[in-house]
Amino acid sequence: MSARELVGIAIDTTIDTTIDTSLDITLDINGRTETVAVEPDTPLLWAVRQTLGLTGTKFGCGIAACGACTVHLDGVPTRSCVTPVSAVGGRKITTIEGATGAVAAAVQSAWTALDVPQCGYCQSGQVMAAIALLNATRAPTDADIDTAMQGNVCRCGTYPRIRAAIHAAALALE
Ligand code: FES
Ligand code: FES
Predict the structure, then answer these.
(1) Where in the chain are the domains?
(2) Is 120 in the pocket of ligand 2 (CB under 6 A)?
(3) Cβ contacts of residue 43 below 8 Å, gap of 6+?
(4) In the prediction, which pLDDT does 68 show?
(5) Closest ligand 2 atom, CA of 118?
(6) For residue 114, what are the contacts with CB-CB under 8 A and spacing of at least 6?
(7) I need a labelling partner for 78 at 20 to 30 A (CA). Which of 14, 22, 64, 134 fits?
(8) Best mutation site among 44, 66, 71 for ligand 1 pocket (most ligand atoms within 8 Å of CB)
(9) Best probe residue, ligand 2, of 116, 121, 127 (max atoms within 8 Å of C-beta)
(10) Binding site membership of 117 for ligand 2 (Cβ less than 6 Å)
(11) What are 24's strand-pairing partners?
(12) pLDDT truncated to tens, each residue of the chain (174 aa)?
């Protein structure tokens, strides 16, 4: 006879004792309002990719060191891998899927014309960083470009084409 039987205690082992601490968090993303049920410290990147299915934003390093996960928060390029979803508040999130307007169109068209991507993995982050740069500085110098893009790593070394494409987009926007 087991110890449980001896003391007459019936234990229901089917009871799930884990505690669900997820919250409903409302996000303003790509012009829509979306509610995600996630843990408050979930990185925005996972809410974007896994919960909302917007997979254009990539996971690279997870420590704000590569730029693959770059989105805009109120137009500011932001590393979504280290941004807790609870810290976003009512700020406007833009991912590569929601990048629209004259600057975004000029960047995308220059990227295509100059055949910038190689493997492509880093490129949505590069494009988001480039759009933010051109929104802030319409005719960037090489130094402006290098400063703005330095946190966006490309393992394929497409940096010369990225720089040329940003200049081409700037020219198209004149
Ligand atoms: S995945 Fe966010 S910076 Fe690398
Ligand atoms: S195009 Fe391959 S990592 Fe940038």
Answers:
(1) 23-95, 102-172
(2) yes
(3) 62, 80, 81, 82, 83, 84, 85
(4) 98
(5) 1
(6) 161, 164, 165, 168
(7) 22
(8) 66
(9) 121
(10) yes
(11) 37
(12) 454 454 444 555 566 667 778 899 999 999 999 999 999 999 999 999 999 999 999 999 999 999 999 999 999 999 999 999 999 989 999 999 999 999 999 999 999 999 999 999 999 999 999 999 999 999 999 999 999 999 999 999 999 999 999 999 999 999
Cα–Cα distance for residue pair 97/55, rounded to 1 Å: 9
Domain 23-95: give its CATH code: 3.10.20.30
Which helix (H) or strand (E) is 149 found in, with range?
helix 142-149
* pLDDT (0 to 100) of residue 14: 64
145 CA from centroid of ligand 2 (Å):
17
Residue with tokens 């996000």: 27
Q: Domain 102-172 falls in which CATH fold?
A: DNA polymerase; domain 1 (1.10.150)
Instruction: Give pLDDT, residue 6.
Output: 46
Question: Is residue 158 within 6 Å of ligand 2 at its C-beta?
Answer: yes
**What tokens appear for 25 in the block?**
């968090």
Tokens representing residue 86 in the block: 């609870």
